[in-house]
Task: structure prediction
Amino acid sequence: MSTPATVADVAAAAGVSRQTVSNALNRPEIVRPATLTRVQAAIQDLGYRPHASARRLRTRQSSTLGVRLPPVHGISGAVLDRFLHALVESADERGMRILLFTATDVDDELTHMERLVEGSDVDGFVLTSTAHGDPRASWLVESAVPFVTFGRPWGLDDMDHAPHPWVDVDGRAGLRDATTGLVARGHRRIGFLGWPSPSGSGDERRTGWAEALAAAGLEGVGLSSEDDVTAATRAVTDAVAAGARFDAVVCASDTLALGARFALGDDVTLVGYDDTPVAEAVGISSVEQPLAAAASAAVELLMGSGRSVLPSSTGHRLLAPRVVWRD
Result:
């Protein structure tokens, strides 16, 4: 069995000092590009892997990010599963681990977060399921704990200059593209099925639908329902009974789209959101979120180009989704 490569081996192969190798691993932004390239090539050639335990002792950091595992309802839980899987992979590439924890509600989540911070169990957090006036973000900002949100800081007057980093997918553009695509396919009575307002992401998706209809000189019927298949079926059935007519419906989630399918049958074209396995199985077109890119962006916003969580950071990434058509 060969002996694992050491920092000294990498330094010798790259023709640099051990400190330069350490900088290349932990603070690459301060290393000259040509030197960084040589060190990275040596690391690759030698198969060097930093000693995680020694690094944690030296830096007094846990090399861990905390993420609450929220309760999953409906068929869209696959989205969170894919995001978490991608987050674990992106974090692992930086020598970081993901600690998942559960909580009964927001207050319980805050209690868990406080304990994790006091115990130095995590270096930062990734928050999901953001909402208007999110108390978690306020507490983390006040406590000077690094974090990034997967979801915009809804309710701020200027989200582009939020006091913390965030990454999100442009649902407004996704539903606008879906509606525009339906218009191009000859549909004219295009409805929308979303969640009750206020809903940050839901309202954004409704706006995308409305913008595309306005651009085409069309009007449509907008409906709302809780994110539940039975409730969505009832909402659409009641609208049809009241005289609404559709030849297509765009929906804020695949759960809502499935409910609309039960109410309208196969004759009305549907577009969901999240591109879940259920949407694929039943042949419903859907807007796909770039979850791997979102996870990678979340880690980058927290850590920059290095292998440690930054003490504070800002900035955001708004990623473009794509429509998966299943005509």
